[in-house]
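In this supplementary section we document a worked example of the pipeline. Step one takes a protein sequence of length 183 as its only input; no multiple sequence alignment statistics are reported here. Step two produces a three-dimensional model, which step three serialises into structure tokens for compact storage. The input and output of this example are shown verbatim.
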Amino acid sequence: MYSKRKLSNRVIVLIDGSNFYHRLKEIGVHNQLEFDYYQFANYLSRDRKIVWRNYYVGVVRAKPNDKKAQRLRRNQQRLFAALKKAQFGLYFGYLLKSDKKYHEKGVDVNIAVDLLVGAYEDQYDTAILVSSDTDLIPVILKVRQLGKKVEYVGFGHKPSLAMIANCDFSRLLGKEDLKPFIK
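The serialised model returned by step three reads:
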């Protein structure tokens, strides 16, 4: 049930960093430091009060003799500094290497915990979720049962139909939508 106060007044912006990185790269944004995350969050909020902005990502670990991993780690550290300056909370998972590929671990759990705790503690009215990860659908459904709204933000060239079907509102972005945030 809804209270008399206007719901959706308080928003949280949650960005799945790896998911966002790959979608940006696919539309031609290769340097995340060129992206204005602060203004992007404001754009997504549509003049509602942003309670918190969070960015979730697996941390690059690098052995001293691995030049490529060292470079990736330095770039990630620069991104973290820019996100902190943009008033984002940073939440880390880790990268696990198996079969010569890296897989991110722990990020979805961090997002899910923040969605649930924030809903149970009435810290927000609407969660703006920038992720196409369908592993989050069970928590999205629970958050909605608790009377919170969830907005899915995805990319037009790779939308998640399952996220669209299970969220209250969906917004699919294209390169033109993102141009104002590329420095």
